[in-house]
Amino acid sequence: MTPTEINWPVALRATDSGEQAAAMRALRDVLHHGLRIALSSRGDVSEAHLEDFVQESLIRILDRLDQFQGRSKFTTWAQAIALNTAFTELRRKRWQDVSLDALLADGERLAEPGMMAEDVLGAQEDRQHLVAVLREAIEHELTPKQRAAILGELREMPFDQIVELLGTSRSAAYKMLHDARRALKQRLQAAGITGTDIQNAFNL
C-alpha cells in the first residue's frame, strides 16, 4: 500500500500492533524524505539530526491526531509539524549555550540587517531612527529580565529557553514579555513610529 492509499488517522490509531507499526514506518519515511529536501541547503543538519527530528515529530503527531481536521492531506499536515519541530530544535541548539549576561550585552546587534525586515520603512535614516529609539527604550524602559526576554525573542530564541534563562515560570515569562512589548510600543509610538512599522520590523 502506497502512502496515498493509507487512511493515516485510522492506521495510526489501529489496535492491531502490526498495522500501527506499518503506518508508523511509512509515515517515518514520508517525514524523513520531506525533511531531507527542506533542509538540504543547511550545512548544520546531519543524518543523525534528521533521525532525531523525525522521531520527535512522530511523537508530536501522535499526540495531536485529534487536531487533524482533514482540511489538507494528512501528510501535508504532518510535514508541517515536522518542519516546525526541526526549526525549533535547530533554534534551541543555536542558543543552548547563551548566558543571561551575554544576552543582556547583545543589544548592539539590533542594528544588524538580519534583526529587522529589509522592507521596513523607506529611507535608511528612518530605519536607523527606529533602531536608535528601540535601543534606548530597551535600555531605559525595561527591567533587566524584560530586556533579556525581548532580546531573546528578537533573536528567535525558543520560548522554553527564554523561560529557562530567566529562571521563572512560563506564565511569568509570558507576562514579562507582554509588559515589555507594551512598554516598547508606547515609547516607539511617542517617537512617531507607527504600530504597523513596529509590528513589521520586530513582530512586537
Give me the secondary-structure topology.
Blueprint: H1 8-12, H2 17-38, H3 47-63, H4 74-95, H5 100-104, H6 124-141, H7 144-154, H8 159-166, H9 170-190, H10 195-202
Helix pairs in contact: 2-3, 2-4, 3-4, 6-9, 7-8, 7-9
Name a few traits of the molecule.
mainly alpha, Rna Polymerase Sigma Factor, Chain: A, Arc Repressor Mutant, subunit A, 2 domains, 10 helices, 0% strand
- Per the CATH scheme, the topology name of the largest domain is Arc Repressor Mutant, subunit A
Using the alpha-carbon principal axes, give the shape: elongated
Radius of gyration: 21 Å
- The CATH class label of the largest domain is Mainly Alpha
For the sheet with most strands, the description reads: none
CATH superfamily placement of the largest domain: Winged helix-like DNA-binding domain superfamily/Winged helix DNA-binding domain
Question: What is the end-to-end distance?
Answer: 48 Å
Mean pLDDT: 78
What does this structure look like?
Mean pLDDT is 78; it is low at 115-123. With 204 residues, the chain is an all-alpha fold. It has 2 domains: 3-95, Rna Polymerase Sigma Factor, Chain: A (Orthogonal Bundle); 100-202, Orthogonal Bundle (Arc Repressor Mutant, subunit A), CATH 1.10.10.10. The relative contact order is 0.09. The radius of gyration is 21 Å and the shape is elongated. Helix content is 67%, strand content 0%. It starts with 7 loop residues before the first helix and ends with a helix. Helix 3 crosses helix 4.
Describe what is shown at a glance.
With about 200 residues, the protein is mostly helical. The protein is built from 10 helices and no strands.
